[in-house]
Design goal:
- This protein has 155 residues and is mainly alpha-helical.
- It has six helices and two strands, in the order H-H-H-E-E-H-H-H.
- Strands 1-2 form a two-stranded antiparallel ribbon.
- A hairpin with a 5-residue loop joins strand 1 and strand 2.
- Helix 5 packs antiparallel against helix 6.
- The relative contact order is 0.12.
Length: 155
C-alpha cells in the first residue's frame, strides 16, 4: 500500500469538502489528537462503527500513539462529517467506500466523483419530492380531523 492509498481524507484541493467544514473543531491544528472515545463523544458514532469504517476503507489510515491507541485529527473529524452527510442522503456504503477510494486516487477522479455526487443529489431531490407529497397528505388528514372535531364540538 502506498502513502497515497492510506490517506482517504480529502486535501484542500477537494472542492467537495470545503464549504463550512473547517469551522468548529474542538482543538486547533497541531493540537488535534483525539482518542476514539473523544471522537465517539463529538460525532455520536460508536467506537465499533469507527473501527468498522477503518476496516472497510471508508476512513483513512488512523495514526496510533506509542501504546497503539488510535489518534484522530481535525481532518478525520471533517471526513466523518462528510461521511455522515453522505449517509443521510441514503448513499449505499459501497458507494461511500468507492468515493473514498477515488479521493485517495487523486484529482484525476474528479469527474467520477462529481457524477457520483450528482446522482446522489438527484436521488435526494426525488426523496424530497416524495416527502413533500407525503407531508401534503398528512396536512390534509390533520385538517380533516381538526375540522371534524370542531364540527362535533358545535353540536
Amino acid at each position: 500500500m502506498t502513502v497515497m492509498e492510506t490517506t482517504a481524507v480529502p486535501t484542500e484541493s477537494d472542492p467537495c469538502l470545503k464549504p463550512g467544514i473547517q469551522a468548529g473543531h474542538p482543538r486547533p491544528e497541531g493540537e488535534d489528537q483525539y482518542t476514539i472515545s473523544e471522537v465517539v463523544a463529538f460525532t455520536g458514532l460508536s467506537a465499533h462503527t469507527l473501527r468498522w469504517y477503518e476496516r472497510i476503507g471508508l476512513m483513512p489510515h488512523i495514526d496510533r500513539s506509542h501504546t497503539g491507541q488510535r489518534r484522530y485529527t481535525n481532518r478525520d473529524l471533517d471526513w466523518l462529517s462528510l461521511v455522515g452527510k453522505l449517509r443521510l442522503t441514503g448513499m449505499p456504503v459501497a458507494d461511500m467506500v468507492r468515493y473514498a477510494e477515488m479521493v485517495r486516487e487523486g484529482p484525476h477522479t474528479f469527474p467520477e466523483r462529481q457524477e457520483l455526487l450528482e446522482t446522489t443529489r438527484r436521488n435526494v431531490l426525488a426523496r424530497i419530492g416524495e416527502l413533500q407529497d407525503t407531508l401534503a397528505v398528512l396536512d390534509l388528514k390533520i385538517n380533516h380531523y381538526a375540522d371534524a372535531r370542531l364540527a362535533s364540538e358545535r353540536y
